[in-house]
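G., the chain you wanted modeled:
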Amino acid sequence: MRLLAKFLLLIFIPNFGFSQIKTTAFSDLESLQKAQQKSVVIHLYTDWCSICKIESFKLNKNKELVNMISENFYFINLEAEKTKETINFQGKQFNYSSNGNSGIHELALALFKNKNQPVYPLWIILDKNQNLIYYHEGKFHPEKMKEKLLEISAL
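Predicted structure as tokens:
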């Protein structure tokens, strides 16, 4: 009985205190914007990026920030090196560009300012008309993110 209780405790405890940001796909963005215009937060990351993993953990742990993003923004996660489907964005078509065993999505390259040396994670915030209003390479602390999103929401 104790073993079962410990097992159940280990399964359910990690889920307490975490929220999940409501994510959107690029393919749904146009129809969602027609129904309700919102600013867009795009998060580019890779599965090998330790800062990306820590940042996602901290972000999902911050319930206030998760609620703010989910309610006021469309949030898109793009795994820059593993996403292989064709993405249509801002009237252009972007594909995965393979170079042997690895590769990168053309949309990720289009979004990076430094195309030769991408920096992960990358945070891009677009206004309701999909114009760039904020660009941030590297670690984006939740408090700074909250401050920036509140500033953008006030526009």
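Residues 91 and 145 are 28 Å apart (CA to CA).

Shout if anything looks off.
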